[in-house]
Each structure stands twice: as structure tokens, then as C-alpha cells.
Amino acid sequence: MEKPERFSTYQKLVILGLSCLLFTVVLDYMLLPALSGTLLAELRLSTEEFGLIASAYALSAGISALLTSGYADRFERKSFLLVFYSGFLIGVVMCALSPSFFILLIARIITGAFGGVMASICFAMVADLFSLSQRGRVMGWIQMAFAASLVMGLPLSLFIASSFSWQMAYAMIFCFGILALLLIIFFIRPLSNSTELSPPWSHIFSNLRKSSYWTVYSANILIVGGDVIFMTFNAAFLTNNLGLAESQLPYVYGAIGITSLLAAPIFGKLADRFGKWSIFAFGTLLSVGAILIYTAGAIQSFEWIILAHSFLFLGVNARMVSSTALATAVPKKSDRGAFLAIDSSVQQLAGGLAAALAGWVIFQAADGSLLHYPQIGWLITVLMIFSAGLVFLVDKQVKADSRLESV
Predict the structure, then answer these.
(1) 2 pairs with which residues across the strands?
(2) In sequence order, which residues have a C-beta less than 8 Å from that of residue 378 and are 6 or more positions away?
(3) Is 6 left (phi over 0), alpha (psi -120 to 50) or beta?
(4) Which of 297, 292, 296 has its CA nearest to residue 242?
(5) Predicted pLDDT at 369
(6) Of 207, 316, 351, 359, which one has the fewest beta carbons inside 10 Å?
(7) d(Cα 27, Cα 156) in Å, to the nearest integer?
(8) Nearest alpha-carbon partner for 341 in 200, 237, 159, 198
(9) How many Cβ atoms are within 10 Å of 375's Cβ, its own excluded?
(10) Cα 318 from Cα 283, distance rounded (Å)
(11) CA end-to-end span of the chain
(12) Given this model, what pLDDT does residue 269 score?
């Protein structure tokens, strides 16, 4: 059993800075669909136009992550982070000032192009600054930024949007972003890369040709794909099939956020102590059980629905924290930025394809209920099991590499 290393004061500041930064990126990403009704009315958008705005972020993020992967290891990490985060904040300001469909579309493309790369840069910095025995806990704390966006950031943003205007909600994100930017500027030290690198495009193709890296990419494609398939029609299933009122939906997603907020740091600590694969396997078993029971429609009462989502996202957090921490141990230092940027790119594209796949499997009956939802549960289960097999291979690879380094 590994004995966890303590964090230094500087490492704690790094975790705080990166968590605050990712809080704003995730909040920006989640706010747009939450404002769908408001934007359709105020900007007089068609559903097709809103769909284009929503997909613009993911598409630009995926392309940007792939294009920048060749440069991610050529520049000092902090400077690279500041450039992309500044671009993201410019996109947020444009969202706040958007008077029309076209300007908002451009703003979402810009926020996606810069914001979609942020997580990969942050994870590369984590890999540079924290040992493998610490990364589970680091990813657990950083994962709390995602949960905090759901529990605190999104309700506050929607309150501001309803009390003042939707533009003010984006202005609030910008203000939080300035505080996060100052934390990064003043408290995180530069992280130089001294390794000689091949030209950018050669560096990209070099990473794409490594089969060991594709084990991680493939695992994350399946992990993200399963999560997106579940979330795409979950609200519609809750209201149309299980009979929940729309006013009850915030309680369901609040339960998800609170579960993630509490579970992520705990599973991070357990992953460092008992091993990343062990926690991932536990999370997979928990998730599969909750998914199969829930998608079969066997749970009807509101209390049991809350409980099912809580158990499911206990498993999801165990899987996400442990797999992310494990993935950072795979690339060599000179490849970290490119590896994580490519990983981010394939995840974005996988999310888009997964949403489309869910739409092909599920059909809506005349009464509004969703058909074939149990089949969705089995599809997610298959993806989870295959992802577990791939993560097991990653774990074996990391252990073998560690033994070689110690010789």
C-alpha cells in the first residue's frame, strides 16, 4: 500500500489556482444550455440556430485542442496557460455583449477554441508538479471545481440572469475569471520545458503513432461516451417517463453536484492509497448497478431517483478521478502537453458522437415518453466494462514503466 505524500504549501496554492480557473471554464460551458429558454426568446433564435451555437463550442474546442497539441510542450506552461485563459475571458466578454445570433456564435467559437484546451494544460501542470502518489488527491480536489459549478455557480448565474439579464450572468463569470487569473499570475511559478522537440506537426503525429497513448485515448473515449449518452436525454426521461415536474429537476442535479463535491476528494485520496485501478473498478461496479436499475424504469419515487443518481455519480467520480490521475503517468514529460491536448480533442469529439448515438437509439412516443431507454442502459454498461478493461491495461503499463525507472 502506497503511503501518500503530503502537499507543500506551494502545491496547495497551485491546486487552488487551477481549481478556480476550471470552475469558470466549466460554469461557462454549462450556462448556455441552462439559458436556452431565455436566449430563444430574447435573441429570437430558432431551435436550429440555438443548436448551432451550442455545438460551436465543442467543435471549436476539439479542433483547437488538436491543433495546439503540437505546441503544448514547446512553451513554458504558465505562459501557455495565461494566453489561453486570457483568450477564454475575451470570449466570455463577447458573450456578455452579444446582441445577435451571429455575434453570440462567434463568441462561443472563441470561448471553445481557448476554453476547450484549459483542462489539458492544467493536467499537464499537475503531472509536472505532483508525483503519481499525489495525483489522485489532486484530481479529486480539481474535480470539485466541476461539482462546485453545478451546485453553486449555475444556480447563482441563473438567479442573476432572471433578476437582471442573461448578459450579467456572463459578466459574473468574467469577474470570477479575473480573480482566477490573478491567482495564477501571482502564485504559480513558471514551468519551463528544457527538452528538445521536433517540429509541431511532427510532434503531433509522433504522439498519435504511439500505441500506448491510444490505450488511454480509447479508454477516455468510452468513459466520456457513456457519460454523455446518459446525460443527453436524462432530463426528458425524468419528466416524460418517470413523471417528475420540471421544478424537481434542480434537486436531482443538485444531488449530483453535492455527491461529486463530497466524493471527488475522498476517491482521490483512496486512489493514492489503494491504487487507481482498484478505485476505478469499484466505481465501474457501482455505476453499472445504478445504470441498469435506473434505465429499466424500476425506480419511480422521487426519493429513490435522488438516491439512484447519488450512487451513480459516486461511481462516475471514482472512475473519473482515478482514470485521469492514471492517464497523467503514461506520457513522458516532453509529450505531456501534446498527449493531454490530443486526449482532450478526442474526448470532445467522442462527446458529440455519443449525443448523436443516443438520438439514434432513443425514439419519442406520441405521448412524449422515451422508447428504448433500457437499451441505452445496456449500451452504457458495455462501454463502461470495455473502458474498465482498457484502464486495467493502462494501470499495468504504468506499473511496468515505474519498475523500469526504478532499476
Answers:
(1) none
(2) 292
(3) beta
(4) 297
(5) 78
(6) 359
(7) 10
(8) 200
(9) 12
(10) 5
(11) 20
(12) 87
Contact 106, 94 (CB under 8 A): yes
DSSP structure class, residue 4:
P
Record: fold of 10-188+201-401: Growth Hormone; Chain: A; (1.20.1250)
Measure the CA–CA gap between 236 and 367, rounded to whole angstroms. 12
Predicted confidence at residue 407, as pLDDT, reads 43
Domain boundaries, the chain: 10-188+201-401
The phi-psi region of residue 46 (left if phi > 0; otherwise alpha if psi is between -120 and 50; otherwise beta) is beta
For 163-267, list the strands marked E by DSSP.
none
Sign of CA dihedral 60, 331, 267, 310: positive
- With 0-12 / 13-18 / 19 or more C-beta atoms within 10 angstroms meaning exposed / middle / buried, residue 39 is buried
**pLDDT profile of the chain (407 residues), mean per 10:** 72 89 88 71 74 76 78 77 94 92 92 87 83 80 78 79 87 94 90 59 72 89 87 75 77 81 86 90 95 84 90 92 86 75 79 73 77 89 95 89 58
